[in-house]
Amino acid sequence: MGLLTYSPGRTRVKICGLKTPADVDAAVAAGVDAVGFVFYPPSPRAVSPNIAASLISRLPAGVDAVGLVVNASDEQFEAIRAAASITLWQFHGDESPQECERLAAGDPWMKAARIGAQFPFDEFSLQYSQANAFLLDALVEGYGGGGVPFDWQGIPQVWVSANAPRVVLSGGLNTHNVGEAIARLHPCAVDVSSGVEISKGIKDPVLMAQFIEAVRAADAKAST
């Protein structure tokens, strides 16, 4: 189990930006593979390391606790690590490959790519070759959570096929479009935040369940 357990025919699901025990419990009940905790103070989805630690304690074995950081200082990063049992780091800022490896210190990590026109996919995956996963997000103001999809057709099919076991697709996914995304790209996992919210930062348990149902339906359709 876990987010990066690549199983052709079963797309893994991460729900990001959880802030309350009810959020976590609903995500787990829906069958999530990973939950994301945002350690970026400007975000409406941000939590403190201590709150994250309390929420992580509710997770069953096999569900990843993903720590999302954006250009965190060494002090900020170590405060998170000391408090919260993060199992997978998500570097969502402008961190260099060397910074990611140094901060992760042997823990699994993924690097977010903000996909705009003419994004250099080959250069990116070569530069961050030590990453356990590449999270493809939309290029929006700020760092993620904008609810804006990017042009999936702009992702080279050859690159997707070569990197599918490490591709986590994000950026504007919701119940209505995730099936198309899976059918087109067959990523290892999908990541949703604003697509399961009733307002910014406020998750809806019904939408979370419906999103995961849509993923499972897409997997079933792909296997027929």
Taken in chain order, the helices and strands follow as EHEHEHEHEHEHEHEEEH
CATH class categorisation: Alpha Beta
Multimerization state: single chain
What structural class results from the helix and strand content?
A: alpha/beta
Radius of gyration: 16 Å
- Give the helix proportion (percent range): 25-40%
Distance between the termini: 23 Å
CATH fold assignment: TIM Barrel
Mean pLDDT, all residues:
92
Query: Which consecutive residue ranges, at least 5 long each, have pLDDT under 50?
Result: 142-146
Tally of DSSP β-strands: 10
Domains (count) = 1
Largest sheet: 8 strands, parallel, barrel
What is the annotated CATH architecture?
Alpha-Beta Barrel
Biggest sheet strand line-up: 1-2-3-4-5-6-7-8
- Supply the number of helical segments: 8
CATH superfamily: Aldolase class I
Describe the structure.
By secondary structure, the protein is of the alpha/beta class. The chain has one domain (12-215): Aldolase class I (TIM Barrel), CATH 3.20.20. The protein has helices spanning 21-30, 49-56, 74-83, 97-104, 121-127, 157-163, 178-185, 205-222; strands at residues 12-16, 34-39, 64-69, 88-91, 109-115, 133-138, 167-169, 189-192, 197-199, 202-203. An eight-stranded parallel barrel has the order 1-2-3-4-5-6-7-8, surrounded by four helices. A two-stranded antiparallel ribbon has the order 9-10. Strand 3 (64-69), helix 3 (74-83) and strand 4 (88-91) form a beta-alpha-beta unit. Helix 1 (21-30) runs parallel beside helix 8, helix 2 (49-56) packs parallel to helix 3 and helix 7 (178-185) packs parallel to helix 8. The longest helix is centred in the C-terminal third of the chain and has 18 residues, at 205-222. The protein is globular and about 45 Å long. Mean pLDDT is 92; it is low at 142-146.
